[in-house]
């Protein structure tokens, strides 16, 4: 079974919306506006590209990343790996042609079937709504979190607010950086 990894830039109060400057959010760009950049704090992002063998996205994140990431050197490893977009509305004609193999999945059952295939880890970037559904369905195996020392208040959150039984996580890696960022890697205890 393949490991499904959710990775996120997240504020201390759980917000994941518009970390890179996406329009329409009051605190858009919060990852670089208020925190000193330290390369070592972001090393996990390069490691994720080397570890992952496929990327899973929700439609909104796909539509935000696909016009930009294919031509960015920082995301070159993602260009060649298979991508899967979970959407009930996206069509083949909506997919970009310069970002490699992309498959549309129509349901969480299809995501579960993908996890049963041969291959290495599948990484989920952004995709707040998809993360909620994946978590509620018990499909996430690991979280890679870069926690920013910010309170953003309103905004999309990484974790579902569904009323459900407690889900235990095991801290497997952590580090704090001089700029206040914290890397936290959790395995989901199934």
TrEMBL record:
<protein>
    <submittedName>
        <fullName>Dihydrofolate reductase family protein</fullName>
    </submittedName>
</protein>
<dbReference type="InterPro" id="IPR024072">
    <property type="entry name" value="DHFR-like_dom_sf"/>
</dbReference>
<dbReference type="Pfam" id="PF01872">
    <property type="entry name" value="RibD_C"/>
</dbReference>
<dbReference type="InterPro" id="IPR050765">
    <property type="entry name" value="Riboflavin_Biosynth_HTPR"/>
</dbReference>
<feature type="domain" description="Bacterial bifunctional deaminase-reductase C-terminal">
    <location>
        <begin position="2"/>
        <end position="182"/>
    </location>
</feature>
<dbReference type="InterPro" id="IPR002734">
    <property type="entry name" value="RibDG_C"/>
</dbReference>
